[in-house]
Amino acid sequence: xxxxxxxxxxxxxxxxxxxxxxxxxxxxxxxxxxxxxxxxxxxxxxxxxxxxxxxxxxxxxxxxxxxxxxxxxxxxxxxxxxxxxxxxxxxxxxxxxxxxxxxxxxxxxxxxxxxxxxxxxxxxxxxxxxxxxxxxxxxxxxxxxxxxxxxxxxxxxxxxxxxxxxxxxxxxxxxxxxxxxxxxxxxxxxxxxxxxxxxxxxxxxxxxxxxxxxxxxxxxxxxxxx
Length: 226
What we know:
The chain is built from ten helices and four strands; from the N terminus they run βαβββααααααααα. By secondary structure, it is of the alpha+beta class. It has two domains: 3-83 and 208-213, Glutaredoxin, CATH 3.40.30.10; 91-203, Up-down Bundle (Glutathione S-transferase Yfyf (Class Pi), Chain A, domain 2), CATH 1.20.1050.10.
């Protein structure tokens, strides 16, 4: 059975899964979700993801949702294909990868995704961006980015000198963040900026990165429905 990904290239969480599939050189089929008709909030999609969010994945006899769980599953099941994203053959390296994956999930994703929604998505839907929320989230993000800058002054990638899932999980929302006026928070930090330029230009990931670099805000009606 071909791996099936239910979602859209324009959603950050779906793109996280697609980036993993591309990096691991796995074949897959995209099953588009009709967000405009709220298909993700109805059956049969709810049988794949009961929370009505994208993406969902079907592979052999298993159905999964939650993008980070999906990428871990793919990296473990197909560990001998493509890039070794979890460093499974080295306990120490694997533990460091997992640590920085947790950092992304618990410290990075919250502020950066909120900033993206406030600056890019809210105006498109006629909602006023809340400058107070943006400032609070920027202050949180700055503290995280300072930690990253220090880490990347010693290593090429977050988990060491090898590209890993820890780096890959950052790509989707950072692509969108770099389209906001706050992108200087990354470009002004030389080691962080070098890291971002490296991971966002990886040949295996260019298609996913370009998919998120929508040319007009009309794509935001999909981006807002994770």
